[in-house]
Structure formats: structure tokens, C-alpha cells
Design a protein that fits this description.
It is built from two helices and eleven strands. It is α+β, with helices and mostly antiparallel strands. It is rod-shaped. Keywords: Membrane, Transmembrane, Transmembrane helix.
Length: 216
């Protein structure tokens, strides 16, 4: 300790330094407010998205979407599908049949339908084991679903897709397995392996089955 001598000049006092404010280590109030508002905005956006998704889910597909799911003529079989007996039509056999002498019959399964008359026989099959090739050799349709027998021999006509054969409906005579039908010189016999028809004069004929058509 320095001794003070009267009359001596006192040493100058040290300069006054302002007190340094305490620095806070946490975020300021303005920063906390900004974070809170940001969270509020995010919550509002998420609630809006949830409401929109719920409304879309419960409203179901629109009428336009339902219509787009249906292709024109959707009730008809696809071009590469096998006829299932629900579409098409029975073959037209008027050119082979006498108006008063024709007889139409089917196998017990209804898969084969035949019309026999004094001028010939025409038979069709609704389902085959293998779908024939479409549009072969200039045919705009299928060959192999219908076979015709005349005195001149057998032919396999081209059948348009819209006229593919169908299974027999009610009201058509059933030719039981082992039974036959004869008109003039044409005869057809039903069996569990298919339908066989022949011209007794020329011995030409065919057999129609799920495996296909064979001629002789």
C-alpha cells in the first residue's frame, strides 16, 4: 500500500469501463417467434393436403374414369380370344338347306351345331382346343370353325369375327351320342369324340371335334 503524503498529487483514477451486458447462449425471442410461425404454416399445409386426399378417396372414381375403362364393344370377345358361346351367331345354312327338308341338330354338349338337307351339310363348332389363325390367306376372319359338305366335296369357309359360331341354345334338337341323322344321301353321326358327316354317294365327308376339322 502506497503511503499518501499530504500535498502530494494523487495518481489519476483508472478510466471507467461500461459494464458488458451478459450474452445469452439461447435463441432470441424473435427467433423463437419465427420458428413457431413456421410450424403453424406447415401444420396448416399438412391439414389441407389430408383433407384433399380424404375427399378424393371417399368421392370414388369419376364418371369419365368409369367410361374410359370400357372399350367400345366390350361385350364382344377380344380378337385373340376363343369364342365362349356368348357372342356371334349361328352360321347361315340357307344356301344348303331346302326350306321344307332341312333339319338342325346339336351334340349333347351343344358345342357343335349342324344343318342337314338334301343339298348338303353345314356344321359349326363354338370352342376348339386351339384358336385358328386370324386372317389366313386373305381371309378376313377365321377358317376352322365351320365346315360344309356338298356332293362336290368339303370346304372350310372364311367366317368373319362378328359371325363366329356359338354354343347351341334351347329349342335345338339334340342328337345323342351314337345316333345319326340322314337326309337324301347325306348322313351325320354324333359321338363323344365329335360329329362325322359323309356323302354316301361319293364317300366324301368330314369329322368336326374340339381338336379341329379333318376331311376325307
Amino acid at each position: 500500500m502506497t503511503e499518501y503524503t499530504p500535498g502530494a498529487q494523487r495518481p489519476p483514477a483508472p478510466p471507467h469501463r461500461p459494464a458488458t451486458p451478459n450474452r445469452s447462449t439461447g435463441p432470441s425471442l424473435s427467433t423463437l417467434n419465427a420458428i413457431v410461425w413456421a410450424l403453424v404454416v406447415v401444420d396448416v399445409v399438412l391439414i389441407g393436403i389430408a383433407i384433399a386426399m380424404a375427399a378424393q378417396f371417399f368421392s370414388g372414381p369419376s364418371s369419365n374414369q368409369v367410361a374410359d375403362d370400357r372399350t367400345p364393344g366390350s361385350s364382344s370377345p377380344a380378337p385373340d380370344s376363343e369364342p365362349d358361346g356368348s357372342e356371334g351367331q349361328e352360321p347361315d345354312a340357307e344356301d344348303l338347306a331346302d326350306i321344307t327338308g332341312a333339319e338342325t341338330f346339336t351334340t349333347p354338349t351343344g358345342n357343335i351345331i349342324c344343318t342337314i338337307s338334301s343339298t348338303g351339310v353345314v356344321c359349326s363348332i363354338a370352342k376348339l382346343n386351339d384358336t385358328p389363325e386370324e386372317n389366313p390367306n386373305g381371309c378376313e376372319g377365321f377358317i376352322g370353325y365351320v365346315v360344309e359338305l356338298r356332293s362336290s366335296g368339303t370346304t372350310l369357309p372364311c367366317i368373319p369375327k362378328s359371325e363366329l359360331p356359338v354354343a347351341a341354345g334351347d329349342g335345338i334338337e339334340v342328337l345323342e351320342y351314337g345316333d345319326s341323322k340322314t337326309v337324301n344321301n347325306f348322313v351325320c353321326e354324333s359321338s363323344n369324340t365329335g360329329m362325322a358327316c359323309e356323302d354316301s354317294n361319293s364317300e366324301r365327308g368330314f369329322k368336326l371335334a374340339r381338336a379341329g376339322i379333318t376331311t376325307h
